Amino acid sequence: MASMTAGFTAARVGTAGFTAAGLGPAGSSGCSSGTTMTDGDILVRGCTWHGDGGQSSHDWSEEEEKRKRKFSPQPPPPLYRRLLLRRRWLALLSFSLWSPLIKAIHITSDPIGRSNKMRLVGLTGGIASGKSTVSNLFKASGIPVVDADIVARNVVQKGTGGWKKIVEVFGNDVLLETGEIDRARLGQIVFSDPEKRQVLNRLLAPHISSGIFWEILKLWIKGCKVIVLDIPLLFETKMDQWTHPVIVVWVNEETQIERLMSRDGCSEEQARDRIDAQLALDWKKSEADIVINNSGTLDETKEQFQEVLRKVSGPLTWKERLRSRDGLFSIVACTAVGLLLAQKNLL
Ligand SMILES: CC(C)(COP(=O)(O)OP(=O)(O)OC[C@H]1O[C@@H](n2cnc3c(N)ncnc32)[C@H](O)[C@@H]1O)[C@@H](O)C(=O)NCCC(=O)NCCS
Ligand SMILES: Nc1ncnc2c1ncn2[C@@H]1O[C@H](COP(=O)(O)OP(=O)(O)OP(=O)(O)O)[C@@H](O)[C@H]1O
């Protein structure tokens, strides 16, 4: 192709009988030469070059040639090659990926490791097994706790959506004179009747989960790096999949019943009903990442807690880093900068 410059994008008319886009079938070009095209001939916008080293039937000016290159009839390369050929995309991608990596290296080199964390720790157990006792230790160590029992109380306050649903289903019998929910009464009903308990759970589940979500969001916005979720029904509601590690506060059954009866002033039967309303504590223990045995004294629990605190404050996984507010911010910021540079053709 004597008359073609290197890299000229034109198709060699071969067995496929390739045709320049929009110009009709090969051989029917608008070119006035009227030459029949054979294997090895080249077609550009209806003009044919002969592959025999001869002169072209037209003398194209350089500008025209450049313009014509835009209308390349060559089949496009596969998508991955086209993307690879685009320097800008590559640069942008690496910019976005490397920024959190650099940040991660910085965090790993931080001996305290406190600079960038978003760890959702699940704290659960059985009723009266000592979750609140352990969550108070977390709070005292400066780690914020989202307490599902408190959220569950807030979503049934007088006039709220949860309150309306309870009144609709359980009637005015479960209301105090003030109009607030009579928790003791409702507790008696639902802990002695699994079906009614399920109804209550279904009514409140969306309110409780969105309440928990907002609490986490508020702490995340504040930049909290480790958040403990104290949820009695963590496994029952399958929320354990969102938390890691899962800490189970375990006690032997005898101690659990004793503490429950003494705290709530209930009978042994009532205590057993409440315990039976949840998955077995021994099973929860078998599913835990970390177990705190709270059957002994408070000091013994505090001792175990120190080790738990050390684990929970340990180096973060990649997922945790990317989930942090700072991690997300750095990805967004670097992508924005990358886009800006790409737009200005600086990459
Ligand atoms: C039944 C209610 C009114 C009893 O109130 P009360 O003030 O007596 O108990 P409190 O809310 O403090 O709960 C004490 C403990 O009971 C256990 N518990 C509470 N609700 C449930 C339930 N639906 N199923 C099994 N155990 C439960 C938890 O271990 C909890 O820590 C109240 O617990 C409630 O509204 N429960 C439904 C909401 C819920 O599922 N809460 C758990 C949060 S995940
Ligand atoms: N190690 C301990 N020694 C003695 N008493 C304890 C110990 N741990 C907890 N208790 C007591 O046992 C009771 C239950 O503890 P706690 O309220 O922490 O349990 P919980 O799991 O949060 O209960 P719930 O499921 O009802 O929310 C409380 O009265 C608490 O003071």
UniProtKB/TrEMBL annotation:
CDD domains: DPCK. One of its GO terms (biological process) is coenzyme A biosynthetic process. Residues 52-74 are annotated as: Disordered. Coiled coil: none annotated. GO terms for molecular function: ATP binding; dephospho-CoA kinase activity. One of its GO terms (cellular component) is cytoplasm. It is an enzyme of class 2 (transferase). Its EC number is 2.7.1.24. Keywords: ATP-binding, Nucleotide-binding. Pathway: Cofactor biosynthesis; coenzyme A biosynthesis; CoA from (R)-pantothenate: step 5/5. SUPFAM superfamilies: P-loop containing nucleoside triphosphate hydrolases. PROSITE patterns: DPCK. Belongs to the CoaE family. Catalyzes the phosphorylation of the 3'-hydroxyl group of dephosphocoenzyme A to form coenzyme A. This is Dephospho-CoA kinase.
